[in-house]
Description:
single chain; 30% helix
Amino acid sequence: MPPLRTALLQSSGRSGSVDDNLAALDEAAARAAAAGARLLVCPELFLTGYAIGDAVPELAEPADGPAARTIAAISVRHGIAIHYGYPERAGEAVFNAAQLIGPDGAPLANYRKTHLYGGFEEKWFTPGEQPVVQAELDGVRVGLLICYDVEFPENVRAHALAGTELLLVPTALMHPYTFVAESVVPVRAFESQLHIAYVNRAGREGEFDFAGLSCLAGPDGTVRVRAGRGEELLVGEADPGLLAASRAANPYIEDRRPGLYGSLV
């Protein structure tokens, strides 16, 4: 099976302007497709911006809302799958969510962040309850988490046990926590034997100073591509062949002894 060529869009877009962010997404999708990518991954809450304060309820949309339909059209126009973060309205609840739309414009998966971070998120969002959300893209099993979720090893291991091969993690990682992007994410990829596309915001937005450092980490613990601190579009490959070889050499999943781990829950 050929590698899944994956583009990582490190950008904060324009806070509070869905139209501007959709235009930026369209332009990034064109560049990613021209580079041969089949998947474009955007940061956490890319659709609206992260530091939107009390505009969260106003900017939140259903999973099948107007922005989703526009992004589906962008996917079809450029022949590329798009994964983007957004505030999802579902009844009276609002979730910090991420949606994957296929290159044919069909919705493939929608995930709601299960571990909310800090007072801002806890004030405006309801935590999700489904820990493992997956989809198939070009024969690769893709899983979804968001930001803080990846800092819990249980979340990533649950994906590994469910067969996830490429884990998409849009994030809004801030200073001074650069060690998460630099160290934690590659270790998560190694200890659970999967690829992780970790895609951050960049620059200052309101009270938040985002760290950049987006990366595509491989199951061998190496970082295939790494962004700097500014806006950037990276392209790397999630290689099923590398994954198979790494899992054979590092059989953590097979060597587990779940009977010893009862105290963890």
